[in-house]
Every structure is written in structure tokens, then in C-alpha cells.
Amino acid sequence: MPVAQSAIIHPTAIIEDGATIGEDASIGPYCMVGAEVTLGEGVELISHAVVTGRTTIGEATRIWPFASVGHQPQDLKYRGEDTELIIGARNMIRESTSINPGTEGGGGKTVIGDDNLMMLGTHVGHDCHLGSNIVLANNAAIAGHCVVEDRVIVGGQSGVHQWCRIGQGAMIGAVSMVTADVIPYGSVVGNRGSLAGLNIVGLKRRGVERAMIHQIRAAYQAVFHDGAGTLMDRAATAARDYPDNPYIQNIIAFITADTSRHLATPDHGHRS
What is the mean pLDDT of residues 176-181? Predict the structure, then answer.
């Protein structure tokens, strides 16, 4: 069994033959690691955590008690096909979180990036692709086939419907139900959440200059509140008006991309 000599494994833990345990990994009491699992350097399973399936976890990721990582997808179409879960480095996967691998119909792979925080009771469904520096607050759930880009915050008790895209830097308010794509840097709240404006706090935290934020506000206003023509017409105009603003270009590229979901738009005149 390829277990690094420097790994620390509690005597009550079960490590199945074939598992790969990296240097300085720590497997706590009553944990279980399946035969096809690869744990990177410094990965820590604190206690009572289960990692199974064809799962790879990057260095220094920590997994708290009662997390279920790599068990078969919650999809009635799944028939035991060989699929995969890839989790990056330095993630914090808190108590009772569940993360499922992919399905044959969804590409066979669930992928999670680096430096994410998944708080208590969160869920990432099959075939999802999550970026890095994401926060899923307590009991947030991401359904299958979703794409969540970098630096997104999903508030507690919120749900994201299958196949939705959440753009970079967006914020989903607590107890929201997202059933449509959310633009980069957007802010969504409510049951069947509508676009409530921009995540200005997030933009400031990442150091975006004031002048750029003013341009983003103006482009948002032009696309979602002002002017004639279709939303796509207004998006194209905004792209031409702000060719040197990468944040606006990111928003427009997201709006105009091919997707299976509708786009979340403002409701009742919300402005930002």
C-alpha cells in the first residue's frame, strides 16, 4: 500500500489496499479512505470522515468530521460507471459536507479548485466545476452540472439549481434559490433569486480601482436598466463602450455565452 512513511494514521482509521497517502498526511480517528483515493501531501482528515471512489485531493486540504467525499452521485441515472472527483489544494471541507463524483452523462468528472471554504452541511453535486477562493456558507447546496467561477460567495441555506452558472466574484444572498445564470460580480437574492445589483463589496475587497468600479456600475445600468433594444444588443454596446475594462468584458462574455439556463435579471427596479 503506497502510504508515505511520514503520514500519521490513527489506529482506528481504515485505509483500503491501493489508497495513496502523501507525505505528512494525517488520518484521524475512525476515518475511512477507499482503495482508489489519492491524498496529497499534508492532507488532513480530522476524524470520522469518509473519502472514497476515484478521488484525488490536493495538498494541505483539511476535511472535518462526518464529511462524505466521493460516494456515488445522487442521480437515478447513475449505473456504477467509473467516474472521478478531483479536489485541489488548501481547501477546508467542514462537518457533514457531501461532494459527489461525476456521471457518464455529465462528462464523468467533478472538479473543485484551490483555497475554497465549504462550511457545515454544504453539498456539491455530480459533474460540477468549481473554481478557487469560493465560500459556500452553512447548508448551501450546489446541484449537479453547475459551474461556479472563482471568488463566488454563496450564502447560508441557499440552493443553486442544476446546470446554472455563477460568474466570477458573484454573491448569492442567504436563503436564496438560484434558478438562472448569475453574471460575474452580480448580487442575487430571494426565492427564485433576481439580480439585485453588483457585488461592490467583493470588487473593493479584491482591490479594483474606484474608476473601474464606476465604469462597471455604468455598464450594468446600461445593460439591465437603460436603453432600447434587446439585452444582447445592450450588452454588445457596453462591450464596445468599455473595451479596456476587463471586468465589463468578463460580464459581457458571460452574458453572450451559450448556456442551457436563463440569465438572472433585475426585478422591480433594483439598482446598484
Answer: 97
C-alpha 198/C-alpha 117 separation (Å) is 22
Q: What is the largest CA-CA distance in the chain?
A: 69
From the list 42, 70, 106, 144, the catalytic residue is: 144
Give the pairing of strands 186-189 and 194-198.
Answer: antiparallel
Instruction: Single out the catalytic residue among 126, 150, 159, 181.
Output: 126
Q: For the segment 55-92, what is each residue's pLDDT rounded down to a tens digit?
A: 999 999 999 999 999 999 999 999 999 999 999 999 99
Which domains, from first to last, does the chain contain?
A: 8-145 (2.160.10.10), 203-256 (1.20.1180)
- 114, 127, 150, 181: the catalytic one is 127
For residue range 254-266, what is the model confidence (pLDDT) as tens digits? 999 988 889 999 9
C-alpha pair distances (Å), 136 with each of 66, 133, 158, 184: 17, 10, 9, 17
- 127 a catalytic residue: yes
Q: Identify residue 139 by its one-letter amino acid code.
A: N
Residue type, 117: L
**In the structure grid, which three cell numbers stand for residue 15, read together?**
485505509
Q: How far is the C-alpha of 173 from the C-alpha of 158, rounded, in Å?
A: 8
Q: Where are the alpha helices (DSSP H) in the chain?
A: 200-205, 210-224, 231-241, 246-256
Would residue 24 show up in a list of annotated catalytic residues for this protein? Answer: no
Please provide residue 109's backbone torsions phi and psi, each rounded to the nearest 5 degrees. Answer: -150, 130
* Burial zone of 81 (CB within 10 Å; 0-12 exposed, 13-18 middle, 19+ buried): middle
The two beta strands, 141-142 and 123-124, are: parallel
Give the Cα separation of 117 and 232 in Å (integer): 35
Q: Among this protein's residues, is 115 annotated catalytic? A: no
